[in-house]
User: Fold this.
Amino acid sequence: MSELLVTDLRVESQSGDSLIQSVSFKLGSGTRLGLLGESGSGKSLSALAITGLLPGNLSASGSIKYGELELLIATESQLNQIRGSQVGIVFQDPLSSLDPVMKIGKQLGKPLSKYQGLRGEDLVAAIESSLAEVKIASPYRVAHSYPHEISGGERQRVAIALALACKPKILIADEITTSLDVSIQSEILDLLDTIIEQRGMGLIFITHDLAVAANVVDEVVIIQNGLVIESGKLQRIIDDPQSDYVKLLIRSARSLDNLLGKLNQGGEQ
Amino acid sequence: MSAGSNLGIVGESGSGKSTLMKLALGLYKPASGEILFESKLVDFRDREFARSYRKSVQAVFQDPYSSLDPRQKIQSAIAEPLNSLGISRDQSKEWVADRVLQALLDVGLDESALQKYPHEFSGGQRQRIAIARAVISKPKLLLADEPVSSLDVANRELVIELLKTLQIQYGLTIAVISHDLSVIAALCEEILVLESGRIVEQGTTASVLASPNAPYTKKLLRAVPRIP
Assistant:
């Protein structure tokens, strides 16, 4: 994959409100980066800016370079070559990224036939194998179902399969486990970990939850109010947090274990 | 549940947590079995019982955006239970205003909130307003369904602390429904684990979380993401 370099990215609304003041980070080949922050901090907008999907009333400045191509001034047809086949994206709510009136198999077949030229039996086999890759237990049933007929965990697996269909070099995962139960969440995180490893892809993992990020990324960029407040290796940031916000994130990620420790000592409860 | 001992109810989506809460609120009727409150059968056809039960049992929900009427000022949103439960029937306007202000102060907001609308507040502040409305009738039991799930980490801690304070100040017992074990561990002495509509484990939070017996409880504990 080419390197993705975001430098001093700024995003403003039409009325001049600054939504991202300055965000910079680099995603090297095969690296896994977590973008962390609260709702409204600008982490999802950064992802949309990379894929050229910012809403029309927002404007971006600064630089987002993918290899030699400057994405902020790229034409729509240049961006279309990046989307899907270079950068795939999965969002929080899989229902909103799936067509409600089209069976899963047909939706998954579209990018597979368009980008890999598959037809007939080959296409059917490719659909089933891409559902199997995301560990869907019964690919045949899911392929023949509409989105509302499968579970939330299965839908998110399908959304991941869709994002992977054009064999992207980078996957952007935007709060992909936030609407899931803890046990489904841990299965999806394991799945993501395996796929990124096997395909040697780069990963941008967007979340508000440090403990969730810690399961899949090595590096983090922590954003608050549109500004990067800390960034670097995950372990170093956990060992030596500088800002109050990052200390709070760490305390929150450890809260269950700390409470269990107290409870076991017959502490305050 | 016994008075004074908070109960946490955990389980995945579809395990029956919220159904349990809706049964307790009389929004659903049980197919069989019964719910007793202070040794009396919870039966909403008994209007006298229903009136006193509604004063004694109040609820806070996950989403503070949908639980407040966007066109109702905070003052009247918080005062509403006083009217609808008949608490303010023989009282003066001043008495109502005092009581509303007191509830607002108790949840950590001030007088300036009274004449504002819900959209003027953050998620954390709105959840405080919803809590003020729930406690203004001085209930004995507060049912809290995912009370902090939609809040950011900073507000999550603050609202948990607020619930602990109100518990003492108002003499509340709280039933907390959550998929987040750390919220239960912070607030509840007792825990009940639901799987597919059945209780698979119950006991004190300390003992259940320290040495879970049911495979499902073990799985839930293992699934909690942790940092290295």
User: Anything to note?
Assistant: Chain A has one domain: 4-260. DSSP finds eleven helices and ten strands in chain A.
